[in-house]
Amino acid sequence: MTDNQLRLGVNIDHVATVRNARGGAYPDPVRAAKLAEEAGADGITAHLREDRRHITDADIDALMEALTVPLNFEMAATEEMQKIALRHKPHAVCIVPEKREERTTEGGLEVAREENRLAHFIAPLRDAGCRVSIFIAADKKQIEAAHRIGAEVIELHTGAYCDFHVEGKIDERDHELEALKEMSAYAHSLGLEVHAGHGLTYDTVQPVAAFPEVKELNIGHFLIGEAVFRGLTPAVQEMRRLMDKARG
Ligand code: PXP
What we know:
By secondary structure, the chain is α/β, with parallel strands linked by helices. The chain is 50% helix and 17% strand.
């Protein structure tokens, strides 16, 4: 991989969502992760939610065992999750906000509001060798706070940009895209590694993939849905192709 190449993290949460709709063992998120790996994913992302609505503790055990690419373990900043992360020591931990009633991670983490707690929370994860990333909105205040607490990486929330695109609100979409672009450059200037994700599709990925400061995109829901139509391997390969093309 060259320095300019963008990494693709494939989020396999929604393979587990389909499995859990029935209970039982199928479809298997680990099998999806291995296929995504072979299709060109540079990492696998999985979010162990407090309510275990998709990924389970056993899935994390199995992913840690089976993967040859790095696992990006998404979690809320709770004591329970910290213990699990410290037991597994995954390559990366991404701290996300979590509300029980939400369908998906709706916004970025309010780092600025709980800087002290988060600084203490991530320190042992960093000491254990995990690369800690913080999922935030494209907002200077949050980026500066993430930097101050000692995070190495920020992941910018692309959900609003993608939603405006789907709703055909072009001015709002472009405004969001501009904020993502400016804040990627700003975070990079502070020495943070910049990732992005949430809601990205074949239609929305390229403008974000073109930002030179962005090193990794994490994409899940769209790819798992697209896999129903064309299969997971071609779905991931097409995303990879579009990202590489945008990167030039
Ligand atoms: N990045 C983070 C931090 C997320 O929480 C999620 C959703 O779990 C994603 C990326 C992937 O979002 P999507 O499934 O909409 O592609």
